[in-house]
Amino acid sequence: MSGLRVVEVGHGYGAGAGRVEVLHDVSLAAAPGELVALAGPSGSGKSTLCHLAAGFERPDRGEVAVDGVPTAGVTDWAVVAVVPQQHGLLAGLSVEDNVCLPAYRAGVDPTAAFSALAEALDLDAFTRRGVRETSLGEQQRTAVARALVLSPRVAVLDEPTGHQDDDHVTQVVAVLAAAAHAGSAVLVATHDRRVWEVADRVVRLDEGHVVQGRHRA
Ligand SMILES: Nc1ncnc2c1ncn2[C@@H]1O[C@H](COP(=O)(O)OP(=O)(O)OP(=O)(O)O)[C@@H](O)[C@H]1O
Questions:
Q1: 119 alpha carbon to ligand 1 midpoint, in Å?
Q2: Which protein residues are within 6 Å of ligand 1, measured from CB?
Q3: Which atom, in ligand 1's list, is nearest to the CA of 208?
Q4: Cβ(67)–Cβ(141) below 8 Å
Q5: Which of 15, 53, 90, 159 has the smallest number of CB atoms closer than 10 Å to its CB?
Q6: Buried b (16+ CB within 10 A) or exposed e, 33-62
């Protein structure tokens, strides 16, 4: 199956008595063109699942793959791109260079994608500024733009609206929906109902178990 596939994943941290089992037999999928929201209480395992989906870690058990290839071996942001909870921007670079970095690395001209994302995410007023001289919300939107600049096959976003006001939440949600509409498989870990409302599916985690899925009415 194409897109993101998580099959019977178990994952934890530490060893011996201090071992914490975080994910238990978790399966989910995001097909190309689908926006899947990952919901659940704090500590339920959303970020852990995002890390695995992004390929930052290899699952202890089960499989996490994009188009059949384990994400842990994928470094190409045209295949899997991510917005980590802490954004992961390069502090020494401008907003524009952060957004365009995946394109520079891939040898792709980012001009058209950058200007569309900068306008859609209200970055235009500070694109030449260093990211250190921008607000946390601006940094978060910069990280969203960076994840989408190559129109990745899979985009994984951890709480991408957490630092946004209402108007900017609307912009981020619209950009994520547009990315899915354009063919990306989009996985969004979020407490934000406004993301759940546009999602094709909401997968809920509780203590590392999938407890329900909801198809949009
Ligand atoms: N490196 C680690 N070592 C040990 N335990 C960890 C580690 N990372 C996460 N955990 C634990 O795993 C559990 C799940 O954490 P995770 O960050 O995935 O939850 P979350 O659902 O994203 O929470 P939040 O909504 O607060 O961001 C928590 O109990 C957390 O303390």
A1: 34
A2: 13-14, 20, 22, 40, 42-48
A3: 14
A4: no
A5: 15
A6: ebbbbbbbeeebbbbbbbbbbbbeeebeeb
Rounded distance from Cα 155 to ligand 1 centre (Å): 21
Taking the centre of ligand 1 as the mean of its atom positions, its distance from the CA of residue 72, in whole angstroms, is 19
Query: Cα(59)–Cα(208) distance, rounded to whole angstroms?
Result: 13
Q: What is the predicted ipTM?
A: 0.96
**Cα distances (angstroms) measured from residue 106 to each of 53, 75, 100, 187:** 21, 11, 10, 23
The dihedral built from the CA positions of residue 66, 47, 76 and 146, taken in this order, carries a sign that is: positive
Give residue 213's pLDDT band: very low, low, confident or very high (50, 70, 90).
low
- Residue matched to tokens 């941290």: 13
More confident residue, 195 or 215: 195
pLDDT at position 217 is 38
Name the percent of the chain lying above pLDDT 70.
97
Mean pLDDT of 65-84: 94
Ligand 1 pocket: which of 22, 82, 85, 158 to mutate (most atoms within 8 A of CB): 22
DSSP, collapsed to helix, strand or coil, labels residue 215 as strand
Residue 216 reports pLDDT greater than 80: no
